[in-house]
Write a structure and sequence with these properties.
By secondary structure, the chain is α+β, with helices and mostly antiparallel strands. The protein has 15 helices and twelve strands.
């Protein structure tokens, strides 16, 4: 899914003196990139150092603007007599849209900004002048998050004289962690116990048709899992297995988790989107698409179906409509909820959350024009969204307009308008 702000260039939508100056500075920096004017290497090193400090100073200004924006939004929401549970909702989402990042990442940035603004003044002052990098500052925020305000400020003052800017990242992290531990040893231990409740497994796409499976585990369990895989790989290599240790460990992980005899014997459900001709024609190069993860070369998709000894389902084949005929989608337009094939087709069309820059899995099917406002339960009026993007849309000032129904050869497009009057385009991905 692609999403873009409706502004062109760096011209601000709502101009004030500082906004105009920032836009001018951005244009000046962009113009300097292709400038090939002669300069000494010493001058170029000076520029690199200054640009690094500018990066930190820019981050510091963004912190200030984020906190002030959040404060203003909360005041407006309270003045509007919103329910207490809704106060603060939609703030991180608007920041995320402006920064072109997901709402979850924007919420983390906002939490970091609040911590720097309210509880870590010395760290923040060093970020302003570029003495500390964003990476080190983020580490200070993270490693002190278990401390109360008084102890956090004490650690902040202690780190002021620690000369972190002269250390490598690992050494600086060790110093920060030690100071945080000594400030509240019992709290540090309790934090470790509490964090174990958050153990989880995740997956995300990787380049070249690969995926990264992660486990967030208690330290001893993670080490035990890795040691068991490593020990098995060493035994297999010693017995003459031709695979590398890394390959054996990866295959063994799949086999032990799924119970398969061989890692390649996956149970294949062809919910990947693939034109029928590409599936049947061995010479077709049209790629398949795994919803939410990305393209899969046609040869590889066909090979999985041929070589896998697992169960196979050719359950859903979904392709771009040809000619002038769009997909035939049934359903009761007066029904409130999206169900059955209508919901499945919308999920296949959207693949991930249709909130701009949000790549979260689809959890809800939302009406673009609200059902309460007379919006029908149809393919055109539906969009797949995560829980967060669904709930924030119910806040005052958020609007969605469909600008392309996506029934012919064009992608489904909607415009999201935020309470500040900014507009963002959300475009469904192209099917194969």
């Amino acid at each position: 899914m692609s999403a873009a702000h409706d502004r062109g260039g760096s011209e601000p939508l709502f101009a004030d003196p500082l906004t105009i100056r920032l836009a001018q500075m951005l244009d000046e920096l962009a113009a300097a990139v292709p400038d090939g004017s002669p300069a000494s290497d010493a001058a170029r090193i000076d520029r690199i150092a200054l640009l690094e400090r500018m990066r930190a100073a820019t981050a510091a200004l963004q912190v200030a603007e984020s906190v002030r924006f959040a404060q203003s939004q909360v005041e407006e929401q309270m003045a509007a007599n919103l329910h207490a549970d809704a106060i603060g909702r939609g703030i991180a989402e608007q920041i995320g849209l402006a920064c072109r990042i997901s709402p979850v990442m924007a919420a983390r940035r906002l939490n970091t900004a609040r911590a720097l603004w309210c509880e870590l003044p010395d760290t923040y002052s060093k970020l302003i002048v570029g003495e500390l990098s964003e990476r080190i500052v983020d580490t200070i925020v993270s490693e002190t998050r278990h401390l109360d305000t008084e102890k956090r400020r004490s650690v902040d003052a202690q780190l002021k004289d620690a000369r972190l800017s002269l250390m490598g990242f690992k050494a600086a992290t060790a110093g920060i962690r030690k100071a945080a531990y000594e400030a509240d040893r019992q709290g540090y231990v309790e934090r470790g116990r509490t964090e174990r409740k958050h153990r989880r497994v995740g997956i995300r796409p990787a380049p070249d048709t690969m995926a990264i499976l992660t486990g967030y585990l208690p330290q001893e369990q993670g080490i035990a899992c890795y040691a068991a895989l490593q020990q098995h790989a060493d035994s297999a290599v010693a017995s003459g297995d031709g695979r590398t240790r890394a390959q054996i460990m990866a295959d063994t992980l799949v086999e032990r988790v799924t119970g398969q005899t061989s890692a390649g014997d996956v149970n294949v459900e062809l919910q990947i989107m693939m034109p029928l001709e590409a599936l049947l024609d061995p010479h077709s190069n049209t790629p398949a698409t795994i919803p939410g993860y990305g393209p899969l070369p046609a040869d590889l998709a066909r090979n999985i179906l041929i070589t896998s000894k697992g169960r196979k389902w050719w359950r859903r084949l979904f392709t771009a409509p040809g000619g002038k005929a769009g997909p035939i989608v049934g359903g009761d337009s007066t029904r409130r909820c999206f169900r059955g094939w209508l919901a499945k087709l919308i999920k296949l069309r959207d693949q991930t959350c249709r909130g701009p820059y949000c790549d979260a899995p689809i959890r809800h099917i939302d009406h673009n024009t609200r059902h309460a406002d007379g919006g029908p339960t149809t393919y055109v009026n539906g969009r797949g969204v995560c829980q967060r993007c669904n709930y924030v849309r119910e806040m005052p000032g958020w609007q969605i307009n469909v600008i392309d129904a996506g029934l012919l050869e064009q992608a489904h497009k909607i415009i999201l308008t935020t309470p500040t009057g900014h507009h963002y385009l959300s475009r469904a991905p192209d099917p194969p």
